[in-house]
Write a structure and sequence with these properties.
Helices cover 42% and strands 15% of the residues. The protein has 314 residues and is of the alpha/beta class. The relative contact order is 0.14.
Length: 314
């Protein structure tokens, strides 16, 4: 049996990334109902909003789902308490030290997965007692690793170091890319960008259309001095590049970034001044589809490609 489907008790080893401003209960429950593992993105939710989404997700699906918690956000104690009180059984943590919360969550019967961008951090996550790790390559949208290691090289490097289940992320949006990641050593995959361009995503239609219309090279990693993030090249991005040409301080960058940039872009649809976080694979996504169609398409292509691989025998 597959390690990821066994760990989470799901049909397919497909995880939906818990992306801020995109991953409400509608998306999470739809992915879980389609056979994957849906994640509510707690990073863009106040504690009371998260509680509401968890409760609505529990009503919308009887399948396993989880919550993604970026540990750099405030109200962390409250968020973790709500997760425990509401009976959530799976938590994905990121952007912080996995030792901080892993044992406490596991003591409360919760399976814990940590997102990493290097073998070094994968080993630290394993040592902290997590049940699995997500190794996310440079191609991924949103907050990213400083190492700039691509998924193609990151997955086998992490696989070589750890013994716990491995989930690949970054540049995965189809059956072919899923199969490629698993051949490299992943036990399952996490997809973010593909699920942003879904009917059930809470992203603004303006942002979904931007993803669908994105071309190769339309995204870039920036803001390494604060927290590296891959975003669409729009006016806000260009303003950042102009500021970089003046050798800005960290404070200068923080001042330009301000607050609520991501919400303005992804949730409210401001394509000019908003922060539009999305992955490189957006250049291969050409439609907004229902989640079930996305999952079915991925799995059909996965199995078809598996059959076709025989042509490469020499």
């Amino acid at each position: 049996m597959n390690k990821i489907t066994n760990l989470f008790e799901i049909k397919y080893p497909i995880i939906q990334g818990g992306m801020i401003w995109n991953s409400g209960y509608k998306l999470a429950s739809a992915v879980s109902n389609a056979g994957g593992l849906g994640l509510i993105g707690a990073g863009s939710m106040y504690p009371d909003v998260l509680k509401e989404h968890i409760q609505k997700c529990q009503k919308a699906t009887n399948k396993p789902f989880g919550v993604n918690v970026p540990m750099l956000y405030p109200d962390l104690d409250q968020i973790m308490q709500i997760i425990i009180e509401e009976g959530v059984k799976i938590v994905f943590t990121s952007a912080g030290n996995p030792k901080t919360w892993t044992q406490h969550l596991k003591d409360n019967g919760i399976k814990v997965v940590h997102v990493v961008s290097s073998s070094k951090f994968a080993l630290k996550a394993e040592a902290s007692g997590v049940d699995a790790v997500v190794a996310e390559g440079f191609e991924a949208g949103g907050h990213n690793g400083r190492e700039e290691t691509t998924t193609l090289t990151l997955i086998p490097m992490v696989k070589e170091k750890i013994t716990i289940p491995l989930i690949a992320a970054g540049g995965i949006a189809s059956g072919k890319t899923m199969l490629a990641a698993m051949i490299l050593g992943a036990d399952g995959v996490q997809m973010g960008t593909r699920f942003v361009a879904s009917t059930e995503s809470s992203a603004h239609d303006n942002f979904k259309n931007t993803v669908v219309n994105a071309l190769e090279g339309d995204t870039q990693l920036t803001l390494k001095e604060l927290a590296p993030v891959r975003m669409v090249k729009n006016k806000f991005f260009n303003d950042l590049q102009e500021l970089y040409s003046k050798n800005p301080s960290k404070e200068d960058l923080e001042s330009l970034l301000g607050k609520r940039r991501a919400k303005r872009g992804m949730f409210e649809g401001d394509l000019i001044e908003g922060e539009l976080e999305i992955g490189q694979i957006s250049g291969l996504i050409h439609d907004v589809l229902p989640v079930k169609t996305i999952v079915d398409n991925v799995m059909n292509e996965f199995h078809q490609t598996l059959k076709e691989i025989k042509q490469f025998q020499f």
